[in-house]
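@channel sequence for tomorrow's demo:
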Amino acid sequence: MRLTPFGHCVQVTFFPDVFPVNCYLVQESDGLTLVDTGMSTSARPLQRAAESLGLPIQRIVLTHAHGDHTGSVDILHQAWPAAEVMISARDARLLRGDTRLDSAEPQTKIKGNIHTVRATPTGFL
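structure tokens (generated this afternoon):
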């Protein structure tokens, strides 16, 4: 794991076998906003990174439903149960296991590693 600070943001980079995975801890007036949760193995390192900043995670923003962005959301939401979880309404359906396509979408199979999660979004992007 590598931490790279950029002003009020810390980029957290993981280096699994295939490609790097980035998450971001954004320092705000009331705590931290975590952008993406990485893979399932990212939970503990992300917890340590947040704790090192001395601020609680108040929001978890998921950019989309692929497993390398949502893999640790359940574990991190258990650690910070008051944190808001936000994602687009479309991707929230994918996280619940609903892979039906909307009529306006290309009618091809949804690709990528998508798995269901227990954390329920509290807001939509």
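heads up for whoever presents: Strands lie at 2-6, 9-14, 21-28, 31-35, 57-61, 84-87, 123-124.
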